[in-house]
Amino acid sequence: MNLRARIYVENQKTNAQLKLEARLALLKEKGLDSEAISQDATVRKLKGMIRKAIFRLATIAAQEKLNQERAQAKADKLAAEKAAREKPKEEEIAAEEMGKKEKKEKKEKKEKKEKKEKPAKTEKQGRAEPKKGKDEKKAEKQENQ
């Protein structure tokens, strides 16, 4: 709902209320009972107009409240950013140094673990003799025969 329409909707509501009061007074002068008055088409139409106006005013109020909350959140965000920019550099430097120390400690622990995990090679793991080529195999066969 258009927020600028608030004035017009309020005017519509007041006009409908005035017309309803006038219509009810006219019907009572005629001597109609409450059941007949509630069944009158004009009365029902005017009551419907009042309900619509009330609903529209409620949506306008909800939209205004939402806009106000957004503006407040935006102001809070800007204030937080401004405070962060004005934060002394000393605190930032101290925080960076603490981070560097922690990284260095983690790196040292990692290096220690790697040293422990590497076992020394044994003869079973490595080859005792290098591979022999074709010529060497032929020479060996001749020697064996």
Structural notes for this entry:
With 145 residues, the protein is an all-alpha fold. The protein has a domain at 3-87. 80% of the residues lie in helices and 0% in strands. It has helices spanning 6-30, 34-39, 41-85, 89-117, 134-144. The longest helix is centred in the middle third of the chain and has 45 residues, at 41-85. It is elongated. 1% of the residues are buried.
Provide a short characterization of the protein structure:
The protein is mostly helical and 145 residues long. It has helices at 6-30, 34-39, 41-85, 89-117, 134-144.
Radius of gyration: 46 Å
Q: How would a textbook summarize the main sheet?
A: none
What is the β-strand count?
0
Number of helices: 5
Q: What sort of overall outline do the alpha carbons produce when their principal axes are compared?
A: elongated
Percent of residues in β-strands: under 5%
Structural class, from secondary structure content? mainly alpha
Mean pLDDT: 82
Order of helix and strand elements from N to C terminus? HHHHH
Distance between the termini: 108 Å
The helicity comes to: over 70%
Unreliable parts: none
